[in-house]
Amino acid sequence: MSETPPNTLQYRFDGPEDAPVLILGPSLGTTWHMWDRQVPELAQQWRIFRFDLPGHGGSPAHPAGSVGDLAERLLATLDALGVQRFGYAGCALGGAVGVQLALRHPERVASLALIAASPRFGTADEFRQRGVIVRTNGLDPIARTSPDRWFTSGFAATQPAITEWAVQMVRTTDPGCYIAACEALASFDVRAELGMVGVPTLVLVGSDDQVTGPAEARTLVAGIPDSRLAVVPGASHLVPVEQPAAVTDLLVRHFSTAWQPAYEHSTGQTAVPGVSLRPLHAVSPQAAPIAEIAPAPVVAPPQVMGRPDPYDAGLKVRREVLGDAHVDRALAQADDFSGDFQELITRYAWGEVWDRPGLDRRSRSCVTLTALVAGGHLDELAFHTRAALRNGLTPDEIKEVLLQAAVYCGVPAANSAFRVAQQVIREETTPSE
């Protein structure tokens, strides 16, 4: 077990001290116990390192707002322990951390397994909406529906103890850390970088995964040059828990045959492995794992001269604050008459002003809501109320902003604003069943 300062992660070791290190990374809402059924066999060959995400299990609540931050915290933990090179298997968010490590620190990663993973997890709007639900209602609504996302209906019905364990695991997670992890997944997108993943990779997915299913897995395999796909029948998103024996077997075979030689510092190169990764055999007679390889184009970054154009930064901020769906509608409706205006507000309102470091987004939302009340701009007030929730304001804080505005902008204006905001808050904070 570990002492855990803010820049590191809580961890535990299992297996021989002199064996190569194999890291098992958890999914959002889970703890390292999701890997309990894999450890006994894997620990016969490897020194197993498991970690808890911030605020998960017994780990201290030091939120990490990006996948890159989680990867750097993991590396800081490993550096403190003297672990330089390792194999890595991660599930969902844990898989995203593995991709980040392979892209940013390829010399550290000997082999990679991505389980229930994706180069982009759903849409940013979905995860930011989940953050709004948790901020308003706590984690109970998410916890109660987690078995539906994680397990097939047959497994949930026949394994009530594991199903209840899953609910309690989510329910005891720190809400702030869960919201930060949702934000990390919302901003994670490595589709254009998959061709630069240079380590042997197993992509493993449950056949019935409705969260990151076989389609997302095939996208990973099509993009990562040295990769193979294994589809585990009869499993959903949390496949290591639902089909532990199949996952263990696949991991043993992958890491036994696809451990890339160490980075050679004298030449600056990595030796070519003598044995390539073999296609995997069937997990069951009914559904064989699939092996596919396709190179992904590497896109060179554009050359920027002088002061960068704020348009791209503005579009990014606009999407993060207002949501992809809203921005996509606005841009799709633009024509020769309104297109210049859409470009203007993206470049200057969002790229020049909203992206300035002087105020955080919560403060900018407070200012914006007040200004919209004063101007009577109720249509804009509606989607900026949604934006305020996404930027971290609670319904009670929005209420206080509107009460303040009532004093300085007038009761009739605030009356209309309360009506609009109330409807938006109901829509955005009511958990879906």
Walk me through this protein's architecture.
Helix 15 runs antiparallel to helix 16 and helix 16 (378-390) packs across helix 18 (411-429). The strands form two sheets. A seven-stranded mixed β-sheet has the order 1-3-2-4-5-6-7, with helices on both faces. The protein has a two-stranded antiparallel sheet with strand order 8-9. With 433 residues, the protein is of the alpha/beta class. The chain is globular, with a radius of gyration of 24 Å. Strand 2 (21-25), helix 1 (39-42) and strand 3 form a beta-alpha-beta unit. It has helices at 39-42, 67-81, 93-104, 124-137, 140-150, 153-158, 160-171, 175-186, 214-223, 239-242, 244-257, 310-322, 324-333, 339-354, 361-375, 378-390, 395-409, 411-429, and strands spanning 10-14, 21-25, 47-52, 86-91, 109-115, 201-206, 227-232, 263-264, 269-270.
Keywords summarizing the entry:
433 residues, alpha/beta, 7-stranded mixed beta sheet, two-stranded antiparallel ribbon, 18 helices, globular
Quick overview of this protein structure:
This protein is α/β, with parallel strands linked by helices.
List the helices and strands and how they pair.
Elements: E1 10-14, E2 21-25, H1 39-42, E3 47-52, H2 67-81, E4 86-91, H3 93-104, E5 109-115, H4 124-137, H5 140-150, H6 153-158, H7 160-171, H8 175-186, E6 201-206, H9 214-223, E7 227-232, H10 239-242, H11 244-257, E8 263-264, E9 269-270, H12 310-322, H13 324-333, H14 339-354, H15 361-375, H16 378-390, H17 395-409, H18 411-429
Parallel strand pairs: 2-3, 2-4, 4-5, 5-6, 6-7
Antiparallel strand pairs: 1-3, 8-9
